[in-house]
Amino acid sequence: MNADMRCGGTEPDSQYVELAVEVFAMLADATRVRIILALGGEELSVNELADIVEKTPAAVSQHLAKLRLARFVTSRQEGTRVFYRLANEHARQLVSDAIFQAEHSLSNDPPHHHHRNESSIIPVQRAPRLDSAEIHS
Prior knowledge:
137 residues; mainly alpha; disordered C terminus
């Protein structure tokens, strides 16, 4: 069981610990976290992101440049417009987990537990009832 927890550089003395700290430092900014949440599973332009995170396009561009250097996002140019998307699903998952942890700090019954519980309920489909005449035929 512990083997699962100790693979991929998760040892306390791993070379990745310092890089992980840099990842957290990159996410220690509310605008960058909002940008990652906004990008979710879609590709957006600087102006679209600026509208969503309620910052100027210039400010969003500066944050995107940092996120691109840190390999959180990638970009694609189409004419004069540049579109951004998450480089992989890990940034989104890390931010989601941080949001879930924040919810736990405010409540013993955080909202994400309700969502998971509702989505995990699978409706029971019962077989049609047969009367005794159908069973014996």
